[in-house]
Amino acid sequence: MKDKPIISNQHGALVMAFVPYLYAIFESRFVLAHFWLGASWLFLYLFSYPFFGIFSKKNNERQKKWAKIYFAISLAFAFPLLLNDLSILQFSLPILPLAFIQIHYAKQKDERNLFNDIAGILTFGVIGMAAFYLATAQYHFAILLHPTLFFIAMTFYVKSVARERKNPLYTKLSYASHLILGLIYAFYGAYSIAFAYLIGLIRAIIVPKKKWNIKQVGILEFAIVLIFFIALIV
Fold it and tell me: Which end of the chain is more exposed for a tag (fewer CB within 10 A), N or C?
């Protein structure tokens, strides 16, 4: 059992991690470099869990072992990408300070902190921008903006029904973020995205009254993310 791979049980976060990446591909066009980036990003994401665990958990040797394994695989997939276009490394510049924020909260054993969550969400968006850049050599900040805003609203909601369910602030933030952002998108004519926020608002109002367990909440979030992703690409 000691050699069993260390994998985060936050499956919803893994889905969120690939939304900006896939959004970028739909907004541009698929190129071979996307395969290398996607594979490298997958193992870099897997690497992050044991890596941050080095700073917060007792069994450091096991954390270090799997962090090294995942990082080596990620680097192997990144090698053809870097061989072809070193300019992709520019996207590591915003990712590094975001990683330091996450290291800080890992050391504090406060990985559920809102700012730690936002740092992770922003990292997902930067990877999406990198994917768009690979196909177009252009920067498209919408790839970062739209998923980041929606995922922050989702984070408020998840906290309101999970660890912060006794804190009314997160319920208010959940309602307000879904409502205000939905209205803003509707005002600018992005009706499909506004609709995704409307669905999110309805679930934020109804689900807490159902007293679902965290697994049921998580399953619904997969559907919410799918609705949002479809809204992005239509």
Answer: N
Whether 186 and 213 map to the same domain: the answer is: yes
For every residue of 24-63, DSSP letters joined together read HHHHS---HHHHHHHHHHHHHHHHHHHHHHHHH-S-HHHH
Q: What is the pLDDT of residues 66-99, one digit of tens each?
A: 999 999 999 999 999 999 889 999 999 999 999 9
Domains: count for the chain: 2
Tens-place pLDDT, residues 205-219? 999 888 788 888 889
Together in a domain, 56 and 159: no
User: Pick from 118, 139, 160: which residue ends a domain?
Assistant: 139
Question: What token pair was written down for 103?
Answer: 């290291």
Residue at token pair 């059992």? 1
Counting as low any pLDDT under 70, the low residues of the chain are: 1-2, 58-59
Query: What is the C-alpha separation between 154 and 225, in angstroms, rounded?
Result: 9
CA-only gyration radius of the chain, Å: 18
Q: Which domain holds residue 97?
A: 1-139
